[in-house]
């Protein structure tokens, strides 16, 4: 009948209540993020918060193999255990603030954007999802705001300058 079963406020009393990460179902939990408050795991039946990991500027999570990988506005990427929200690793990115991560094969990719006085620069960063080690930083000039898309070994990225790129990744 369309009635509300439960609701959970993820914005709290934060001045900036941006909550636009798409929820992801993983390990029987809803994993989602609030820009101001961090990453949450919510029981889909009861609407109770199972765990919360505080991080400012959290992006949408990519989930695989028991980990939720999220970007953070201050230029980092972190992996959390989907079981309890425990930090598994954190990697600082020098190429700018990351968008939403995406898993592609055995890697995790993030597109970054860094705004300067005269232009915007960015990269596609490939990381080891188990350790957070940066495997490659593909600088292509203009930054990225649009989500990445993965298909098989191919990664597609649309730059802020309107150019779409296709990368073929090796195993």
Structural class: mainly beta
Beta strand count = 16
Amino-to-carboxy terminus distance: 48 Å
**Computed Rg:** 16 Å
The overall average pLDDT, rounded, is: 89
Largest sheet: 5 strands, antiparallel
Spans of at least 5 consecutive residues whose pLDDT stays below 50 are none
Helical region count? 0
Overall geometric form? globular
Relative strand content: over 45%
Order of helices and strands: EEEEEEEEEEEEEEEE
Helix % is under 10%
In short:
The protein is mostly beta strands. The protein is built from no helices and 16 strands. The strands form four sheets. Strands 9, 10, 11, 12 and 13 form a five-stranded antiparallel sheet that branches.
List keywords for this structure.
0% helix, 171 residues, mainly beta, 5-stranded antiparallel β-sheet, 49% strand, 4-stranded antiparallel β-sheet
What does this structure look like?
The chain is mainly β. It has no helices and 16 strands. The strands form 4 sheets. Strands 9, 10, 11, 12 and 13 form a 5-stranded antiparallel beta sheet that branches. The chain has a 4-stranded antiparallel beta sheet with strand order 1-2-3-4, with no helix packed on it. A 4-stranded antiparallel beta sheet has the order 5-6-7-8, with no helix packed on it. The model has no long low-confidence stretch (mean pLDDT 89).
SSE topology:
Elements: E1 24-26, E2 29-34, E3 38-42, E4 49-53, E5 62-64, E6 67-72, E7 76-81, E8 87-92, E9 97-98, E10 102-104, E11 107-115, E12 120-127, E13 134-141, E14 149-151, E15 154-158, E16 164-168
Antiparallel strand pairs: 1-2, 2-3, 3-4, 5-6, 6-7, 7-8, 9-11, 10-11, 11-12, 12-13, 14-15, 15-16
